[in-house]
Amino acid sequence: MCNSIAVATLSVAEKQADSLLKTAIAVQPICSLPKKTTLHSPNPSPPQAIDEKYGGHCYTPPSLADFITEAKALFSLAFPIALTALILYSRSILSMLFLGHLGDLELAAGSLAIAFANITGYSVLSGLSLGMDPLCSQAFGAKQPKLLSLTLHRSVIFLLFCCIPISFLWINVAQILQFLRQDPQIAGLARTYLLCSLPELLTNSFIHPIRIYLRSQGITRPLTLSSFSAAILHLPLNFLLVNRLKFGVAGVAAASAASNFIFLLSLVSYVWAYGLHEPTWTKPNLTDCFSGWKPLVRLAGPSCVSVCLEWWWYEIMIVLCGLLSSPQATVASMGILIQTTSLIYVFPSSLSFAVSTRVGNELGAGRPNGAKLSAGVAVLIASVMGLTASTFASGMRWRWGRMFTADAEILRLTSAALPILGLCELGNCPQTVGCGVLRGSARPASAANVNLGAFYLVGLPVAVGLAFWAGVGFCGLWIGLLSAQICCAGLMLYVVGNTDWCFQARRAQSLTCAGGGTVVAADYEDDGQPLMTQQRV
């Protein structure tokens, strides 16, 4: 069943692209790509041969030592990423606590504003920034470090441009929410919150690309330390703006924006002070920064779609809860469960970022064996993560909800859905890591197709059918999510398991190919045109 769905979700364009590139590779040496545009390197690196030990015809299973070494490499990347995510998660929880302290109206308005910001702003910027992930990780693996800074410059400019339409949406959010029949008072306060959050859009346009730029080089400590410094100041900033200066909802938003700016300032200062940028840095050039955007945009688009499709699903779940009987209890319970799954998600998402970096580095270096090993080890670790999360959710079903509320109806709904949430994690952890593998091998369109098919063509109909037509109610929504996660995990593992790693290594070398004093970067996509062409730096 999964096999047939997987074939259906893969686009005809991608099949044509793969066929075209295979033909091109078969008839010419890997570094004899079409001379679209060249980049002259003063110190050219020799062409890297494709190592086929684990990825080609002479496949040999990796040894236990190889497995352990790769697991250590993944954990060394994933652990600080997870720690950073937990620190940032604590900031959002603290903001919600201050909103709740202000009153029910402020909490409702702030929650609505945050949901609107997530849907229209933060998820979009986060997804678009992931377009630079394969470009940076593969360039670093191919020993073309200057391409990293050029991609960083372009990504920052690209995200800043994307902030313009998002800002217009936020400025007019009151009219939009009232059109959607929201309470005018809540809509007005939500607008106040979002107006004070506009600076956070700008800082995120720098933070997201810098994080990927550093992570693709295996640099994670600055992110953890900078996020920690911002989190320490988040509490006094909220206390000053909300409790002392009585700025209310605006104070909570301003404190969040200020702490985000502190995060950015600390991050840039650390990188600059320790010279972490020097091996890969290129002075920004207007000609280069405003040209050659096609590869970034073509990878950013499906990356954004993939992230948003999954992110928006949970917002849809909250809306559907409001249509059930006892909407106050179901919405509150859904809020608790989404906070829970967001906390659990920190760990597989961190592993996903780690494996994306490892796969990209190995493919860029011409080592399909390493990429295949990294993908396999990461999926195995993710499966253990899913089993652990499922056990935790089932074991805490009667106690977890009491940490948030004493309402009997909310506790009943939460305890009933927690085991289903645990089963969802059995699929969510592997599929999240699988998405990272596809991202590291520059295949975000495949991940977007899988998420679209699993969440919206399978999960959503099942959720609506069970919750409303079959009368299952609240748990029916979570069974719908479970069906989506099972399908998504199966499709992701199918795509990853059927990957031709030697072919992906050739694609990566066509993205950043070094040889004969000339660097040519080209990756054939659906229209047969080179994905990436570079100008002189």
Automatic annotation (TrEMBL):
Keywords noted in UniProt:
Membrane, Transmembrane, Transmembrane helix
One Pfam family named in its UniProt record: MatE
Q: How does it sit in the membrane?
A: Multi-pass membrane protein
- Asked if the Swiss-Prot or TrEMBL record annotates the protein with the keyword Cell division, the reply is no
User: Biological process GO terms, please?
Assistant: xenobiotic detoxification by transmembrane export across the plasma membrane
Cellular location of this protein?
Membrane
Principal cellular location given in the protein's record: membrane
Please provide, alphabetically and separated by semicolons, the GO molecular function terms listed in this UniProt record.
antiporter activity; xenobiotic transmembrane transporter activity
Cellular component, GO annotation = membrane
Instruction: List where the protein spans the membrane.
Output: 73-93, 105-125, 156-180, 223-242, 249-273, 375-393, 448-470, 476-497
Establish whether keyword Transmembrane is in the entry.
yes
Checking InterPro entries in the record gives: MATE_euk (IPR045069), MATE_fam (IPR002528)
| CDD domains (alphabetical) | MATE_eukaryotic
- Output the PANTHER family linked to this UniProt entry: MULTIDRUG RESISTANCE PROTEIN
Q: Which family does it belong to?
A: Belongs to the multi antimicrobial extrusion (MATE) (TC 2.A.66.1) family.
Q: Which NCBIfam families match?
A: matE (TIGR00797)
Protein name (database record): Protein DETOXIFICATION
